[in-house]
Design goal:
This protein has seven helices and eleven strands. It is an alpha+beta fold and 221 residues long. It has two domains: 13-153, Glutaredoxin (3-Layer(aba) Sandwich), CATH 3.40.30.10; 172-215, 2-Layer Sandwich (Antioxidant, Horf6, Chain A, domain 2), CATH 3.30.1020. The strands form two sheets. A seven-stranded mixed β-sheet has the order 2-1-5-4-3-6-7. Strands 8-9-11-10 form a four-stranded antiparallel β-sheet, with helices on one face. A hairpin with a 4-residue loop joins strand 1 (13-16) and strand 2 (21-22).
């Protein structure tokens, strides 16, 4: 069965470019982003890993750990990192999982269970479904799943924006509207009754429709 939002992220043990990890232990009390790649030495993924390295401080500020994954072996990851630094200006400064037996890719439903063999003999097209982003909360639950084609580079600024929304709604009973940016007005969650909402927002809210209750960002109210 496919993974969905709200499912527990599969735990696993794996070798990475920063040493062996047990995934849930590695996450600890943090948030985490797991982003996968069909193969090392691919052009779009090279730009993505370099960009992620350049904005890692933005994830650090939010208490979010980032980790990459490719089914290629560890030695290939280390060689690829040199290309990433040379072409993108920033080497990966986060771990990249080696998954040569496809265990993690299969656990996260990115490759079929019957896949086997030497990963270095597989083409990027063979692994084209390994192009996902998973945002995982401290409770080890999946909060967001994004799936991209090989030809479209991922927008990791959008991942940061969604993390801001997820972390806001984890701490306050609000939701964020279309095109929301940090600091913008928010919507009181539908699970909150009007009586409950008045306790938090005694000045009331803007209500263009009975089911829409707009209030200032909680940090500004």
């Amino acid at each position: 069965m496919s993974l969905t939002i709200g499912d527990t992220a599969p735990d696993f043990q794996a070798d990475t470019t920063e040493g062996p990890i047990s995934f849930h232990d590695w996450i600890g009390d943090s948030w985490a982003v797991l982003f996968s790649h069909p193969k090392d030495f691919t052009p779009v993924c090279t730009t993505e890993l370099g960009y992620m390295a350049s904005i890692k401080p933005s994830f650090d500020e939010r208490g979010v750990k980032i980790i990459g994954l490719s089914v290629d072996p560890l030695g290939n990851h280390e060689e690829w990192a040199k290309d990433i630094e040379r072409t993108q200006g920033t080497a990966p400064n986060y771990p990249i999982i080696a998954d040569p037996e496809f265990k993690v890719a299969k656990a996260y439903n990115m490759l079929p269970a019957e896949v086997s063999g030497d990963p270095t003999e597989r083409t990027p097209a063979d692994n084209q479904t390994v192009r996902n982003v998973f945002v995982i909360g401290p409770d080890k639950k999946i909060k967001l799943i994004l799936v991209y084609p090989m030809t479209a580079g991922r927008n990791f600024d959008e991942v940061l924006r969604v993390i801001d929304s997820l972390q806001l709604t984890a701490n306050h009973k609000v939701a964020t509207p279309a095109q929301w940016q940090p600091g913008d007005d928010v919507i009181i969650a539908g699970s909150v009754s009007d009586d409950e909402a008045r306790e938090t927002y005694p000045d009331g809210w803007e209500s263009p429709a009975p089911y829409i209750r707009i209030v200032p960002h909680p940090d500004k109210s």
